[in-house]
Structures are given as structure tokens and as C-alpha cells.
Task: inverse folding
């Protein structure tokens, strides 16, 4: 049996039927990590207890104490979620030796569902970036072409799947960090509605935008994973207190009537690569064949979304990152000024503990919030955010889901944009809107370029409309839009 050909829920069924054990599957993926990760660099640490935990899960399943759609399935978790058994580094020097004292709610739910953590995955430092090149562990390489970026900031989680080093993974998405690496690595990635998954134990970047999301090859596996991690949590004050939908049960329901909105501003954008545009057109045709009605819609403030995001996110980040002072957590460097030992220790710890992109955001955010400037920048960005949310609201009066590109281009080369922050930020053009409006978004593989690089499309939905997105994605995959594949890492 080739485990790589099975979906995560198929793996779980075989474990339940005792055709496979969690230990066998876990050992299989650990071995793939051992063989391939020196080239891909998707992991920051491995779980030394994984096999013992798999044994315990096998025992519970056999004793009838544990069941569930993903029981026994191993997975990889972005190194931004707190796990006391492994370090939680956020890809930063600041937290390189940090081990969290508690477990993030999303991770706890995963453990309770009988899933086994293989390891933690690489990311842009503090989730700031779009290429996983700002990690203190070095860049993650795209399994489809090792000279290219895997996307970011959850690049490790996406690359782990593309290289067949895990069947499921978890990421976080503040402005596109699940959807964009999913697109670059040829896997499915879901960012749920803001508040659908608890942020407790998710290291904060921009709290009004951050959301935990998941990756899988099959949309049906995304549904099963969301089922596990979603839900109200009284330890996260922005968690939504609404019942969790049965996402898996509705996957095969009739889609019709279905109105799909094509976003004019996204498709007319000059930055859009012709191959990506063609992938959207192909998906549109496939949806039409499935009986959907295609309607052109407008999101008129699209071009303001990147500027608004790059004010709001750094403002929140500058506050969230003030906790890293060399006193409370992580890295400490004693300063050289003896008459002011505390101040100089804080300055030295922050100067050496943070990388260039993180410092850029802290400075941008501190400036935009400063006396005399906050009206001109921060408050104005909040007003733009409101307009963007209203654009979506108006679009969803006409259609059920929106279809467009996830990223302007297929994956680019490592080093190509990391020295040019503005170019890097413009790569977020199609993803940040959903975060500013708090809406769910799903990136779905939609073919390959001639050079063998993944192409993707993005579906966006109404607030709490994950079930519809998953259903559309599932039926597109079932209709053969793109057959899930694992890259052959040479
Ligand atoms: N690329 C965006 C940024 O750099 C989004 C990151 C994210 O979603 N965490 O902020």
C-alpha cells in the first residue's frame, strides 16, 4: 500500500480497520522527513515522542476509547503555535530556545482527536513575510523546484505536504500566509473566518487579523481538519460562539443553485501572470459545467487593501512584539551601557533578537501609531478596512462565493524579492482583503505551468461560510480540476 496515495481520512479509516497502524504511518512520514528535509527545510524541530504517542493512539483505538475521522493520522504544525513538548520558535532568534508552558487550543484539539504531531514547521520570522526566507533556520525550498520559494509565511507547512512529509499541516494566516504558500506548493489551504478557530496559544502577530488555518491535498481532508480545530474557546475573547458545522457531511451535497462571482479588479490587475489568469478561467469553465452561474462582481477598494493592511498589521505587531524585551521571554543580550543596565539590555536583546523585517514592521507600526500621525495613518487605514469589508458585503448580496487568483504569479526564485519589501508586499494583493474583512478563503491547486510550477485559484466566502467553500472545492477536485500530487524532490 502506498501511503502517499491515500488521503488523510482514508489513512484514518485504514487505521480504524486495523489495515494500518498509527505507528506505521507515523514512522513512514518520519522517515520521509529524515530523507528529504535536508533539501526542503520544512521543519524547525521534530517530535521525539511521535512514535510513542502513535503507539498510545493505536492502543486507545484498539481499546475502543478513541475514534474519529482523523484518529491516528500524523501532521505537522507551524512553529507559531505553543507546544510544551517541542520548542516554539516563530522562526526567530528571539524565541530560538523558547519552550511554551502551555498548549495552544488548536493543538490540544488535534491531540484530543488522536492525531500525532510529527514536528514544527518553518516560517517567516513571527509570520511576517511571504516567502519563508526570513526564518532564523534559513529558507524553506519549494519541493517542485528547490531554487524557488515555498511561499510564506507558513512555507514549511505547505512544503511538508508537497514533499510528502506529512498528510495534513496547520498554519496561520494574517494576510495570506496559509493560502499563498498553499498556492506555491500545489496543495489546498484554508483560512477560516476570523474567530472560527481559537487563537489561544497562537503567538500574536496582528491580533485582529490572525487566524489558524490548515493544509491538505484533498479539500475533504481540509473539512475533517477544520472540524477538529474549529469551535468556541473562552480563553480567546474574539472566538466566535457558534456551533461548528458538520463540514465533512455536506461536501457531496448539491451545489446548485450556485452563483460564483468573478472579481473584476483581480482579473484586470496588470500584475496578474497570464498562466494564473488562465487557471482562473479554467476553474470558471469547470464551475459552469457543474451548473454554476458566473457573475462578474466588483471589489472597488482592492488596490487599497495592501496599503491598509501594511498599516494595520504593523501597528498591531508593534504592540504585540513589545513583550519581547529580554526580561519576560526568550533571547537576552546584556548591553554595554553600564549606567543604564536595564535599558541597554532591552535595546541589545531586541536589536539582536529580531531580524530586519520584524524591526521594519515594529518601526512602521510605532510611527503610524505615534502622536500626531495616528489619525493620518492608523485611523485612515481602519476606515479603508471598513470600506473593503463593505465591498465584500455588497458582493455577497449577489453571489455565494468569489473566485479569483490566490497570488499574482507562480512561485518565484529564492532571493528574488526578499531584498525588496514593497515587491514582497504586493504579492499579498489578492489575499489580505479576506483578513481585513474577517472572511474565509481557500486556495485550491489548479494545474501546473509548462515549467512544472503549481498554479492555484482562490475561493472566498461569506462569514462562517467555510462549508460552502469546502463543498465547491471538493466538487471541483472531484470533477478533476487538478489531481493531488506529491513532488519528486531530487
Ligand atoms: N505576507 C503577509 C505579511 O507579510 C502575510 C503574512 C501572514 O499572513 N502571516 O504580513
Result:
Amino acid at each position: 500500500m502506498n501511503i502517499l496515495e491515500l488521503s488523510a481520512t482514508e489513512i484514518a479509516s485504514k487505521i480504524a480497520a486495523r489495515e494500518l497502524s498509527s505507528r506505521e504511518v507515523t514512522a513512514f512520514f518520519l522517515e520521509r522527513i529524515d530523507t528529504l528535509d535536508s533539501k526542503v527545510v520544512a521543519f524547525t524541530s521534530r517530535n521525539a515522542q511521535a512514535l510513542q504517542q502513535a503507539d498510545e493512539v493505536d492502543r486507545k483505538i484498539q481499546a475502543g476509547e478513541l475514534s474519529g475521522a482523523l484518529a491516528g493520522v500524523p501532521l505537522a504544525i507551524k512553529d507559531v503555535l505553543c507546544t510544551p513538548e517541542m520548542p516554539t520558535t516563530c522562526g526567530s532568534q528571539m524565541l530560538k530556545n523558547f519552550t511554551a508552558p502551555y498548549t495552544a487550543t488548536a493543538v490540544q484539539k488535534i491531540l484530543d482527536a488522536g492525531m500525532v504531531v510529527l514536528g514544527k514547521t518553518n516560517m517567516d520570522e513571527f509570520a511576517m513575510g511571504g516567502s519563508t526566507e526570513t526564518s532564523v533556520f534559513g529558507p524553506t525550498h519549494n519541493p517542485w523546484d528547490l531554487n524557488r520559494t515555498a511561499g510564506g509565511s507558513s512555507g514549511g507547512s505547505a512544503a511538508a505536504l508537497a514533499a510528502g512529509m506529512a498528510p495534513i499541516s496547520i498554519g496561520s494566516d494574517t494576510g495570506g500566509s496559509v493560502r499563498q504558500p498553499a498556492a506555491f506548493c500545489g496543495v489546498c489551504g484554508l483560512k477560516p473566518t476570523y474567530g472560527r478557530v481559537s487563537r489561544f496559544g497562537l503567538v500574536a502577530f496582528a491580533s485582529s487579523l490572525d487566524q489558524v488555518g490548515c493544509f491538505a491535498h484533498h479539500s475533504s481532508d481540509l473539512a475533517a481538519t477544520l472540524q477538529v480545530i474549529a469551535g468556541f474557546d473562552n480563553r480567546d475573547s474574539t472566538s466566535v460562539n457558534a456551533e461548528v458545522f458538520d463540514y465533512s457531511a455536506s461536501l457531496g451535497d448539491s451545489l446548485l443553485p450556485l452563483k460564483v462571482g468573478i472579481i473584476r479588479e483581480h482579473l484586470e490587475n496588470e500584475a496578474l501572470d497570464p498562466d494564473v489568469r488562465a487557471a482562473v478561467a479554467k476553474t470558471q469553465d469547470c464551475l459552469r459545467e457543474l451548473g454554476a452561474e458566473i457573475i462578474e462582481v466588483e471589489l472597488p477598494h482592492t488596490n487599497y487593501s495592501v496599503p491598509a493592511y501594511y498599516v494595520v498589521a504593523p501597528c498591531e505587531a508593534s504592540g504585540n512584539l513589545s513583550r519581547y524585551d529580554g526580561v519576560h521571554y526568550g533571547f537576552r543580550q546584556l548591553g554595554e551601557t553600564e549606567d543604564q543596565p536595564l535599558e541597554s539590555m532591552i535595546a541589545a536583546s531586541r536589536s539582536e533578537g529580531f531580524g530586519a523585517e520584524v524591526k521594519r514592521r515594529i518601526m512602521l507600526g510605532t510611527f503610524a501609531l505615534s502622536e500626531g500621525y495616528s489619525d493620518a495613518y492608523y485611523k485612515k487605514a481602519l476606515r479603508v478596512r471598513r470600506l473593503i469589508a463593505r465591498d465584500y458585503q455588497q458582493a455577497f448580496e449577489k453571489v455565494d462565493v468569489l473566485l479569483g487568483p490566490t497570488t499574482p504569479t507562480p512561485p518565484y526564485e529564492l532571493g528574488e524579492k526578499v531584498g525588496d519589501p514593497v515587491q514582497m508586499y504586493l504579492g499579498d494583493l489578492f489575499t489580505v482583503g479576506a483578513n481585513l474583512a474577517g472572511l474565509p478563503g481557500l486556495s485550491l491547486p489548479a494545474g501546473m505551468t509548462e515549467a512544472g510550477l503549481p498554479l492555484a485559484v482562490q475561493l472566498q466566502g461569506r462569514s462562517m461560510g467555510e462549508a460552502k467553500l469546502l463543498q465547491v472545492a471538493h466538487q471541483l477536485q472531484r470533477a478533476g480540476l487538478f489531481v493531488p500530487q506529491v513532488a519528486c524532490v531530487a
